[in-house]
Amino acid sequence: MKKNERKMILFSILIIVSILLTVFRVGYYNYSKSAGNKVAIIDITGTINFASETEILKKIETSINNGFKGILIKINSPGGTVGSSQSLYNYIKEVRTKNNIIFGCSIGDIGASGAFYIAMACDYIVANPGSILGSIGVIIPGWDFTEIAKKLGIKQVNIKSGEMKDSLSPFKELTPSEKKYYQELVLKSYQMFFDDVLASRSGKITKEKLKEIADGRVFLGIQAKELGLIDEVGNINTVKNYFRGIFGEVDFVETESSQMEFIKKLISNSSNIDFINYINLPLYYYFYRGEN
Prior knowledge:
Elements: H1 3-32, E1 38-45, H2 50-65, E2 70-77, E3 79-81, H3 82-98, E4 102-112, H4 114-119, E5 124-127, E6 132-134, H5 146-152, H6 176-200, H7 207-213, E7 218-220, H8 221-227, E8 232-233, H9 236-247, E9 251-254, H10 259-267, H11 270-278, E10 285-287
Parallel strand pairs: 1-2, 1-9, 2-4, 4-5, 4-6, 5-8
Antiparallel strand pairs: 3-10, 6-7
Helix pairs in contact: 1-10, 2-3
């Protein structure tokens, strides 16, 4: 069998599977409108960006439209872009008030920076004793290739509309005024993060204590509980019991990714995509990099 033929067969299979998944999801959500206490389980995994934000928002909206009374957010993420992290945080806060939806959060291996920001929007937050979380901070990643470029005789020539247009180019050093500008940008974004954590954990951690620890450091789950950053040390079953304490008998429903997202995950290397997103300057991030 030729290579092109194999590709066509694989593509046809993926299309068929995606259609079946769609049919299943439509039928399922019609069933979900029946009476009963239903809680959707939604995963937030990997780097948070516009694409993942859009998918998560769709899942939350679909759950609300189909009469779900609660949403359990499972987090296993180092964070992501500032805008998408804030968007999900604000949307969950809005939905909690407007639609009277209960949100519980279970943090797995990691729930840092932007992912931790999103967790702050939930009514009840749980992490494993050894989970890595926190990293309250902002970063604009950058590279400096100027020394290498000099040795290789490489020069970058930019035709630009303004002085700041190429300010984060890896082939030029930042000027003092550029450094000051980006530092102010980072600090403003950081202040928004800080204020939202403080508001979300009101009565559980003081402003003075939060100032002391909100410097980008990460914590274990047991440390976060002692500090008042989470509500309980446990796992997803702890959060499920929280919902049972509110609703009594509960149906927990795993949500599925859309058929197109399913296909993308099968035919792409997400780690490469995340790396490309990470170096696509000058985005700035609520992001934790454990290898640094």
